[in-house]
DNA sequence: AAATCGTATTGATGTGGATCAAAGGGCTCC
DNA sequence: GGAGCCCTTTGATCCACATCAATACGATTT
């Protein structure tokens, strides 16, 4: 299939082997030869404009997606129109795992900003992970990590107060920005108060008030979507010092 | 390790190939030869008495567990003592998937009644699923199903009112009992009101009141842990007819 | 630079479920 | 088979967050 002409600069730049996200993504733990095998499998990239769907609930499942650039939210919608954001995904994270069980996507994935994903045909991923043990293991870890994350959100939704939820959210974002080489204390949120609220099981006004409260208490400096964390230990204390 | 004497009746009875749960469990979709390979991998069974832990958060992860008999709950506990039930598991369901990501269990699994599980050493499962495509696929489906289930719980915790949560819970239990050949409308809950409440993000008093309300409205007949569903459509209506 | 629209903040009021409290019922374990 | 204890139910009160409402801000368009 591959032509004999040399690969273009762009193709090189987008290969797993050249991708600076590989420590966070599917190639983690693979040796260079194995990463090259993965490269062949990642057929195409897809650009998704802000507010566009990467996939929709009910669509046939054929591939999972690794985020190369940008960010997404996933949500589920009930018949009566209520919806709930189930997660926010950043570069290097994998989207679409929910579709494996029924061969149909069970949520919507929507770009929070202009973004790009690597398309990983799932049957070929299963095929290759039968041959490459480290890939198989990394894939299992990624799925398991999603389960653990979900349990954390269930804890948050089931037993935390509004300010604790927002503190947990901010600390989580900080940690994920840090893992991507950005500042732990200063970042730009790509989602609205309403989307944060949906994720945290709160109304947007409650999210806004909690932000204001944190600002009053000197925990963070908030300017719309731009966040500066001033007192990380203070935020952590908010989480744990709750009388049982 | 195995002695040369013929396998006992009990050992035969507990093999996957003879297990009547195989349609719900890991062997689903495997041909008889493949199920035999799985049999060899399922090293041992473990009996867990009511209230005993199958595993605890923080323990090294080595195996996943398929429930042969009985039922379990899983929970996560915060430093300050707050805890949250993240799921109830019935026969044929798999426990321990949360441990893959960090090689340590991230929650506790506790038997709700005297129970028995099949121990599936994880590294051997990965090994065999590199050889047996249908096993690999079934395992991936099981993990994905857990993710989808978790998203449903997030929806429930984030956007439903108390009675809707309980209705969703009862319908889910009914469906799972049905899948196991039991009555869809009459069953015995193994967990307390407190545990249901923890799972649903409610206090036990609220769960109790919701049960009483359902009883008044003729939706269910409740006698302690014994539940008879009288009006399934009524319960379903409660879920969907919510003004957005 | 003005107009528009989505997003955010802040205030006033309402309410669903939490909390506090007490009594009754049914298991479990001697 | 009885004692004790945990579990459940029900009532009264409280409070955290939702809801309703108005304004302000900022980005985008023209």
Describe the model:
The structure is a homodimer of 244-residue chains. With 244 residues, chain A is α+β, with helices and mostly antiparallel strands. Chain A has two domains: 9-150, Jelly Rolls, CATH 2.60.120; 160-240, Winged helix-like DNA-binding domain superfamily/Winged helix DNA-binding domain (Arc Repressor Mutant, subunit A, Orthogonal Bundle). Chain A has eight helices and eleven strands. The first copy, chain A, has helices spanning 9-14, 32-41, 122-131, 133-159, 162-179, 193-200, 204-216, 232-240, and strands at 44-48, 53-55, 63-69, 72-77, 83-89, 94-95, 108-111, 115-121, 186-188, 220-223, 226-229. In chain A, the strands form three sheets. In chain A, strands 1-8-3-6 form a four-stranded antiparallel beta sheet. Chain A has a four-stranded antiparallel beta sheet with strand order 2-7-4-5. The first copy, chain A, has a three-stranded antiparallel beta sheet with strand order 9-11-10. In chain A, a hairpin with a 2-residue loop joins β10 (220-223) and β11 (226-229). The longest helix of chain A has 27 residues, at 133-159. Mean pLDDT of chain A is 93; it is low at 7-12. At the A-B interface, β5, α3, α4 and α6 of A face β5, α3, α4 and α6 of B. Chain A binds a DNA duplex (30 and 30 nucleotides) through α7.
């Amino acid at each position: 299939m591959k032509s004999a002409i040399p690969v273009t600069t762009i193709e090189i730049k987008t290969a797993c082997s050249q991708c600076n996200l590989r420590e966070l993504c599917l190639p983690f733990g693979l040796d260079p030869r194995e990463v090259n095998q993965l490269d062949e499998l990642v057929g195409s990239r897809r650009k998704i404009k802000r507010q566009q769907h990467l996939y929709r609930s009910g669509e046939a499942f054929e591939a999972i997606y690794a985020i190369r650039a940008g960010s997404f939210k996933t949500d589920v919608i009930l018949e009566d129109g209520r919806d709930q954001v189930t997660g926010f995904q950043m570069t290097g994270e994998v989207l679409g795992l929910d579709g494996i069980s029924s061969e149909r996507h069970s949520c919507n994935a929507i770009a929070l900003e202009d973004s790009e994903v690597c398309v990983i045909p799932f049957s070929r991923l299963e095929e290759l992970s039968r041959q490459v043990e480290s890939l198989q293991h990394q894939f299992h870890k990624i799925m398991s990590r999603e389960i653990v994350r979900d349990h954390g959100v269930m804890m948050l939704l089931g037993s935390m107060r509004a300010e604790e939820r927002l503190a947990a959210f901010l600390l989580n974002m900080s940690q994920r920005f840090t893992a991507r080489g950005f500042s732990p204390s200063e970042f730009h949120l790509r989602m609205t108060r309403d989307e944060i609220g949906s994720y945290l099981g709160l109304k947007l006004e409650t999210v806004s008030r909690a932000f204001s409260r944190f600002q009053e208490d000197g925990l963070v400096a908030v300017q719309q979507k731009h966040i500066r964390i001033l007192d990380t230990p203070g935020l952590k204390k908010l989480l744990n010092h709750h009388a049982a």
